[in-house]
């Protein structure tokens, strides 16, 4: 037990003696005193937690400099993968609506869709959901293109009425997120 305490005391003395050199090296790597102090702190914490792997009598300064250098490069690699987003602009773009809200919205939409007149429902499903052109939908339904356009227009109006939608802000993302998305799309 006394041997372990002696080892820790000697380790601590060597470590403290090396701190000024370690800090100077950290400043040369980071370029700023505050980042250097953080880097030195990380290196000292790592060294302290691994003091059992250090052999007294070997070069403590070289060992600590290696730890500090490795920590610096680890932080640099990490920063290379990170994006600076102080205002949260990028973070807001990555947000996703909770599934339960989408499920409830879809259920409401299906209920409203089923309340449409059959010809309107058929037209809106062919063009808006299935991706057919107005001409293709008119051929499938055996009517004029203008009739399909009219049915779709009436169907959209009726769906808005049934769902209580007055404008774009009534569906999709929350209003502030919708604004970010509109800005992103227009950029």
Automatic annotation (TrEMBL):
Keyword Transcription regulation appears in the UniProt entry: yes
All copies of domain RNA polymerase sigma factor 70 region 4 type, residue ranges: 108-159
Cited Pfam families: Sigma70_r2, Sigma70_r4_2
DNA-binding is among the record's keywords: yes
Keywords carried by this UniProt record: DNA-binding, Sigma factor, Transcription, Transcription regulation
RNA polymerase sigma-70 region domain ranges (all copies): 19-81
InterPro entries, A to Z: RNA_pol_sigma-70-like, RNA_pol_sigma-70_dom, RNA_pol_sigma70_ECF_CS, RNA_pol_sigma70_r2, RNA_pol_sigma70_r4_t2, RNA_pol_sigma_r2, RNA_pol_sigma_r3/r4-like, WH-like_DNA-bd_sf
Family: Belongs to the sigma-70 factor family. ECF subfamily.
NCBIfam families assigned: PRK12547.1, sigma70-ECF
Protein name per UniProt: RNA polymerase sigma factor
Source species of the chain: Rhizobium aquaticum
């Amino acid at each position: 037990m006394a041997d372990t305490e002696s080892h820790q005391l000697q380790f601590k003395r060597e470590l403290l003696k090396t701190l000024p050199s370690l800090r100077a090296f950290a400043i040369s790597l980071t370029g700023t005193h505050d980042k250097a102090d953080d880097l030195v702190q990380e290196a000292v914490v790592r060294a302290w937690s691994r003091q059992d792997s250090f052999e007294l009598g070997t070069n403590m300064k070289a060992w600590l400099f290696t730890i500090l250098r490795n920590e610096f490069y680890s932080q640099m690699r990490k920063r290379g993968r990170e994006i600076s987003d102080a205002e949260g602009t990028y973070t807001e773009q990555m947000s996703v609506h909770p599934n339960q809200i989408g499920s409830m919205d879809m259920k409401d939409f299906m209920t409203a869709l089923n309340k449409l007149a059959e010809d309107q429902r058929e037209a809106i499903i062919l063009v808006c959901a299935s991706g057919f052109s107005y001409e293709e939908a008119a051929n499938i339904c055996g009517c004029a293109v203008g009739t399909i356009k009219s049915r779709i227009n009436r169907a959209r109006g009726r769906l808005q009425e049934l769902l209580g939608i007055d404008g774009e802000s009534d569906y999709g993302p929350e209003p502030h997120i919708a604004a970010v998305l509109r800005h992103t799309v227009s950029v």
